[in-house]
Amino acid sequence: MSDQTTVFDLIRHGEPEGGPMYRGSKDDPLSAAGWQQMRDAVAETDHWDAIVTSPMLRCVHFARELADRYGVPLHKDERLREINFGKWEGRTAEDVMASDGERLSQFWANPAANTPPGGEATRDFNNRVVESWHHWQHELAGQNVLIVCHGGVIRMIVADVMNIPLEHAFAGLMTPYACRSRIQVNTSEHGRFQSLAAHGTLRALTS
After folding, report:
1. What does the record give as the active site (predicted)?
2. CATH number, domain at 34?
3. Catalytic residue at 135?
4. How far does the chain reach from its first CA to its final CA, in angstroms?
5. Does the chain have fewer CB atoms within 10 Å around its N or its C terminus?
6. Per-residue CA distances from 140 to 35, 48, 69 (Å)
7. pLDDT tens-digit readout, 68-106
């Protein structure tokens, strides 16, 4: 096996229309502020050989703009959709806390054992995201890759990279709008090694 290094930049979408809420599978596009957040999150020195995106509107529209700008392939992957929050979708955190606070607290304390009412089990969500993550490591090996996705998706990928138990994968990492993460994957005859190289806003990462 030849030595290869693959660099992945993960970026969470910007603010969608309607503002912060448990959005999950609710397919809102980016707001004007969200578009600006995303454009501000890209530096002139960035270079990618391919872009992978969630198919949801708040991700794919910006991913397509970047792919056209850089002239690189764009791959849409259904497995990178955000977790489905069930009956909490379309509601703010404050609203859910007021009416369903105990279950919300249990979810954040241990999402693996507490599924949102009518929502997607966290283990099922994790399985599909990690399946996608490993697929693109193999498919785009040796390249610089951008993944445009969601806060929950980034949490699952970082948990896989850092061996964080699923019970702690949501509450243990902040992923604000347009947050970026960089992960380096090295493969050799000795195996595959994943490392989180950076996490935060572009301003924080470059200051």
Report:
1. 13, 82
2. 3.40.50.1240
3. no
4. 37
5. C
6. 27, 11, 20
7. 999 999 999 999 999 999 999 999 999 999 999 999 999
Instruction: Look at residue 89 and tell me if it is in a domain.
Output: no
Residue 38: inside a domain, yes or no?
yes
Query: By the 8 A CB rule, do 51 and 63 touch?
Result: yes
Binding site residue list: 58
Q: Which domain holds residue 64?
A: 4-82+121-206
> Does the annotation mark 17 as catalytic?
no
pLDDT in tens, 61-78: 999 999 999 999 999 999
- pTM assigned to the model: 0.94
Q: Which residues are annotated as a binding site for substrate?
A: 58
Q: Give the chain's domain count.
A: 1
Tell me how long the chain is: 207
Nearest partner of 33 among 19, 51, 50, judged by Cα: 19
Assess if residue 159 is contained within a domain. Answer: yes
